[in-house]
Specification:
CATH superfamily of the largest domain: Butyryl-CoA Dehydrogenase, subunit A, domain 3
Helix content: 40-55%
Structural class: alpha+beta
Order of helices and strands: HHHHHHHHHHEHEEEHEEEHEEHHHHH
Number of helices: 18
Bound molecules: flavin-adenine dinucleotide
Number of domains: 3
Radius of gyration: 23 Å
Shape: globular
Number of strands: 9
Strand content: 5-15%
Length: about 450
């Protein structure tokens, strides 16, 4: 039945019947946006407009030649648009009113999807700033917030970009701090020693997003244990703010990555770096708790980045099928192609539903966040791979718009804890209650 015939048939219904009938004349994006509270719907629209206007023109150049891409102009534009100060409410920052009611991360997952739908690499370069500030935001210590978070948000809000980065990973340690069992035995190379007036930090970090340009980095280091001996991550880890320009602090090479190439992943070196006591985040030896909570929060936007990647692949495949003809008709007219596109759209919808549901948890919970991150990351790669098949040789082409989504998706499965580790985090979170405990099962 054509839409005109359907409309005619619906017109025959009583007014209430007409109101209850959805004629389906708005896009999926508009339809889903309409389910959000008005303030979040406005934000979603603004994030999409920003991504289309500011990110889209940069995508090809930044992905093909990341070494020649300098993100500073974009950081300034994003700051002026209010994207880099959403960690605090006005008058210090631009956090939306209503976060307590909507969920502290709802605006963040909307932003992550919209940026990544255009380019996950450029998006990551902006979003990693929030990760860098997360220890300051979540440590619950007013002294730390006043000293570091307030001025950074205020500067960004005023259009003076100040970028933060988050540093846990080291050359010989990554997953170890994503998982409790690993943290008990992990030996991290970066250490902190208490001295008169502050601390001295030594060590190396790797793969730190945004470190090439960051003004400050939240660095996790093992504080020397009270009674001597080797420090333990779960007992002695401590978070410090280290500012660019501090003697002994320098950045090294940025990795040549498979995907999300527009975001730098850079080495950090700390050689006898003195930081005053003021740079201690919250309390000594609270690093393990801070890190775990940062990951509970950050894995939801990472899941949303995956949704953006899947959506970008799906939209590119759809446009391609509309424009490309085979045997005298558009690919879109073939039922086999329609079935494939249906799978791409429905997978992306299911991923988004999971992210939005996850973002409603207050505060975010380990099991939920890890489940969202893992599921969406894995499905994004599957969706991008399927979209690549639809485009055939154009799917293998770097300018085809889809192979990049595949590469970007593979990286999403690795950072913020590999998806294997996130599965273990889910098991750990459910162990006492749903798995070994047996609560919540009906058999
Ligand atoms: C693009 C990108 C950006 C990044 N940005 C940052 C950043 O800003 N800050 C930062 O600190 N880090 C960052 N990282 C690092 C990232 O968080 C780590 O790569 C990740 O945690 C995995 O650690 P790893 O590479 O050391 O892997 P490894 O720990 O060496 O793991 C190797 C393999 O072993 C598996 N494995 C490990 N332990 C277990 C276990 N107990 N059980 C089962 N399997 C296991 C893993 O799943 C993986 O498959 C980034 C990485 C990438 C790729």
């Amino acid at each position: 039945m054509s839409s005109t015939e359907l409309r005619r048939s619906v017109e025959l219904l009583k007014p209430l019947g007409r109101v209850l009938f959805d004629l389906g004349e708005v896009s999926l994006w508009e339809r889903e946006t309409a389910t959000l509270p008005r303030r979040l719907a406005r934000r979603r629209r603004a994030y999409r407009d920003f991504a289309r206007r500011e990110l889209a023109p940069l995508v090809a150049g930044a992905d093909e030649d990341p070494a020649g891409y300098d993100p500073r102009r974009l950081l300034g534009v994003a700051a002026r648009a209010g994207l880099q100060s959403e960690q605090l409410p006005p008058p210090w920052g631009t956090m939306p009113l209503g976060v307590v009611k909507d969920g502290p991360l709802f605006h963040e997952v909307l932003k992550a999807e919209e940026l990544a739908a255009v380019c996950a690499g450029l998006g990551l370069g902006l979003l990693a700033h929030g990760l860098g500030l997360a220890p300051l935001q979540l440590c619950g210590d007013l002294r730390t917030m006043r000293r570091w978070l307030v001025p950074v948000c205020r500067d960004n809000r005023a259009g003076r970009p100040r970028l933060a980065a988050f540093a846990i990973t080291e050359p010989a340690a990554g997953s170890d701090v994503e998982d409790t069992a690993g943290a008990r035995v992990a030996r991290f190379g970066t250490s902190a020693r208490r001295v008169q007036g502050g601390y001295v930090l030594n060590g190396q970090k790797v793969f730190i997003t945004g470190a090439a340009y960051a003004d400050l980095v939240t660095v996790f280091a093992t504080l020397e244990p009270e009674g001597g001996g080797a420090g333990r991550v779960d007992r002695d880890w401590t978070c410090f703010v280290v500012e660019r320009g501090t003697p002994g602090f320098r950045t090294g090479r940025s990795e040549h990555k498979l995907g999300q190439r527009a975001a730098d992943a850079t080495e950090l070196f700390l050689d006898d770096v003195f930081v005053p006591s003021d740079n201690l985040v919250a309390a000594e030896r609270s690093g393990w708790a801070i890190n775990r909570n940062v990951l509970n929060y950050s894995r939801l936007p990472v899941g949303a980045i995956a949704v953006g990647i899947a959506r970008g692949a799906t939209e590119a495949a759809t446009v391609y099928c509309r424009r490309t003809c085979l045997g005298g008709k558009p690919l879109l007219a073939y039922q086999e192609v329609q079935l494939t596109l249906a799978d791409l759209w429905l997978e992306t919808m299911a991923m988004r539903a999971m992210v939005w549901q996850g973002a409603r948890h207050i505060p975010p919970a380990q099991g939920i966040s890890s489940a969202v991150k893992t599921f969406c990351g894995d499905r994004a790669v599957a969706v991008a791979a399927r979209a690549t098949e639809v485009l055939a040789d154009d799917g293998a082409h770097v300018r085809g718009g889809v192979e990049k989504r595949f590469r970007d998706g593979r990286l999403n499965q690795i950072y913020e804890g590999t998806n294997q580790l996130n599965r273990l985090a889910l098991v750990e979170a459910l162990w006492e209650t749903d798995l070994a405990g047996g609560h919540g099962t009906s058999i």
